[in-house]
Amino acid sequence: MDDSDAASGESGGPYAPARDVLAGEGLGAADGGGAADPDPAVLAARLDDGDPLSGFADRYHVPDGVLYMDGNSLGPASDAALASLDRVVDEWRDRLIGGWTDADPPWFEVGERLGDALAPLVGADPSEVVVGNSITVNVHTLIGTFLDELLAGNGPDREEFEAADGTWEPDGGPDTEPAVLVNELDFPSDHYAVRAQLRQRGIDPDEKLRVVPSRDGRTIDPRDIEAALAAHDDVGIVCMPTALYRSGQLFDVARIADAAHEAGAYVGFDAAHSAGAVPHEFGDAGIDFAVWCTYKYLNAGPGSIGALFVAERHHGLTPALAGWWGHEKATQFEMNMEYTPAESAGAWQIGTPPLLAAAPLEGSVELLREAGIERLREKSLALTDFLIALVDARLPAVDVGTPREHAARGGHVALEHPDAERLSEALRDRGVVVDFRPPNVVRVCPAAPYTGFADVLEVVDEIEAILKSGAHESYATSEGGVT
Ligand SMILES: Cc1ncc(COP(=O)(O)O)c(C=O)c1O
Question: Which atom of ligand 1 is nearest to the CA of 272?
Answer without folding.
Answer: 1
